[in-house]
Amino acid sequence: MRIILLTSLLALLGLLGFACGSANSSNSDATPAVGGDSPTAAYKQLYAAVKSKNTDAIREMMSKTTQEFAASVGQRQNTPVEKVYENGFTATTFSEKLPEIRDERINGSNGAVEVWNSKESKWEDLPFVKEESGWKLAVGDLFKGSWQSPGKGRAMKEMEAANAANGGPQLGTLPNTSSNTNVRPKVIVPKPANADGK
């Protein structure tokens, strides 16, 4: 009797283990959420998509407004939208390896993170917005004026401190500056080809 009870218990534990293992393997095969759980994670996904030359993955890392912006750029320049997405709207993706990322800032559904632009040897402050599926690059939102800066980045604060130390004006006090002036990444948009294809 004891052997039958022990055998039944082991069989039950085996079935439970098999069922739990099947559930875990089906979850591990699921596609990870598009858009990071932070601007830093979103940038890492964008960088990986650019390096893999996966236009669909790059597009998914862009906010809806940025996707509209890309479509209008492609139409205006008579360029395929795949070419517009090629570098993810930032020169930081030209780096051979994932560039240094610092100073993540979030205020509500607006965020920013500084990423090292090795091509120009400077920090780029990239805008992000939080949408349903996570954080997305918000270049289109920036140009539309719907993105609001979550605060000055570290590079801007360092430049202001250097100017103040040298007796120059603080950057935030220059005429014609807006709250988003400190976050103007260099947007990489392909140039239209000449008639001869060059």
Which SSEs are present, and which pair or pack?
Layout: H1 2-28, H2 39-51, H3 55-60, H4 64-77, H5 81-85, E1 101-107, E2 110-117, E3 122-131, E4 134-137, H6 139-144, H7 154-165
Antiparallel strand pairs: 1-2, 2-3, 3-4
Task: Explain what this protein looks like in three dimensions.
The protein contains 7 helices and 4 strands; from the N terminus they run H-H-H-H-H-E-E-E-E-H-H. With 198 residues, the chain is an alpha+beta fold. It has a domain at 39-173. It has a 4-stranded antiparallel sheet. Strand 3 (122-131) and strand 4 form a beta hairpin.
| Relative strand content | 5-15%
Uncertain spans: 5-32, 173-183
Shape: globular
| Elements, N to C (H/E) | HHHHHEEEEHH
| Total count of strands | 4
Oligomer class: single chain
Number of helices: 7
Percent of residues in helices comes to: 40-55%
Structural class: alpha+beta
Mean pLDDT: 79
Question: Span from first to last CA?
Answer: 86 Å
Main sheet specs:
4 strands, antiparallel
Query: Rounded to an integer, what's the Rg over CA atoms?
Result: 24 Å
Strand order of the largest sheet: 1-2-3-4
Summed up:
With 198 residues, the chain is of the alpha+beta class. The chain has helices at residues 2-28, 39-51, 55-60, 64-77, 81-85, 139-144, 154-165; strands spanning 101-107, 110-117, 122-131, 134-137.
Search tags:
198 residues, alpha+beta
